[in-house]
Design a protein that fits this description.
The chain is of the alpha/beta class. Helix content is 39%, strand content 12%. It contains 15 helices and 14 strands.
Amino acid sequence: MKFSLGSVLALSCAATSYAFTPTTTVRRSAGLKVVTDPSVASSSGEWSPSSWKGKVPKQMPVYDDEEELDAAVKRLERCSPLVFAGEVRSLHEQLARACHGQGFLLMGGDCAEAFNEFNVDHIRDTFRVLLQMSLVLTFGSAMPVIKVGRMAGQFAKPRSEPDEVRDGVALPSYRGDIINSEEFSAEARRNNPNNMVEAYHQSAQTLNILRAFATGGFADISRLHAWNLDFVENTDEGSRYRKFAVKVDESLRFMKAIGIDTSNPTFTQTDFYTAHECLLLPYEQALTRQDSITGKWYDCSAHMLWVGERTRELDGAHLEFTSGIGNPLGVKVSDKCTPDELLRICDTMNPGNIPGRLTIVVRMGAEKLRKNLPGLIRAVQREGKSVIWISDPVHGNTRKTENGYKTRDFENIRAELRAFFDVHEEMGSHPGGVHLEMTGKDVTECVGGISDVTEESLGDRYHTHCDPRLNGQQALELAFLIAERMRVRTGLPPIE
């Protein structure tokens, strides 16, 4: 079946609703019946927001003052939720459709947010790159794209070692601004529980800005030309996007001509959700609330949370905590994950096997992915597990250059994405999304791509607090590459 650009736009807009507004959580009816009311069951039986304390917590900071920690947690417990249960259910509903092959999940944002980098322009630029990518991917896939930002809570980072040693001096490792500070001094590296409160307030501001952009006219599809970043404007990808935007304009004029009201919120607003790694459990516990309508528990620090490769132990504290919340969940898996282990993770995180509840984020590197992913998919298919498969093509491709910079090669990222789509094509499964560490800033942190960042130019604008990020041009280039692959998969002609 062939799709015109106009029909693809209509499909995209039909999936759009009043994002971020908790008073407008009633969704349009659709042919697919979606169940989004997960039963809350703990792996250990009786669940509560604090039951994780009975398990072994990995990657957790050690605080030197328990009373100070308790006081910070109590302050957070008195704060209002950052997101609302109705918004979370709305996301879950869209993810359930993606689980059935009727959507594509786009997740992107900073490796780690920082207090001193909080800036409205930074949030805006990352938001508009994600809008551009979403539009390109919608055209490529002929299906709705679910936009989720690694924003408003992505502060904590796991670490290989608990301590960092410099010149014979050992201090606690930097674990993200929500825990301690990057400066190498005893005072800065102290694990400070009050940082959680500061992270909450910055997240609240970020969410307010995102809500304004999503519903206040910035996301109006008629403004798609204005979404181009200044530093991308004069590049090959910027030119390609402009040509693509002209096609969208033509389709919008056609839709107006046949009587469709393009000033409707369907065209002028967009859904945008937030997610972060569920790592710092005292923070997550403090922001967990019981929904007054359903009685279910939701972690109101974000719409979606994921558990990382280093904290997904079946008997660990992080799976214990996530087993009781109603949020959509993700789990990152590498080549270390066996089919049997993945099935047990599915049973723990999604015991009701509810579509949209669990997203498997695959991070392996191209070669290992081709070897290991088929077995994981085969096991999930055999047992009838409902999951969304998405690719994280960046984490398995990190290396350090001779001059000491951590970086990622664009060609390796592209190769892993190609492998991800190849395997799903062979297995007859749905490649459901992509998860990227990226920014709207003009940084030089990942090498390669049309932006032509080299190892020699890494130091020009290397600003990351943690891992290297794709810049806006590289992220948009990836979106076009994914869109082309999805068009081939659906039998549509190439994007010209």
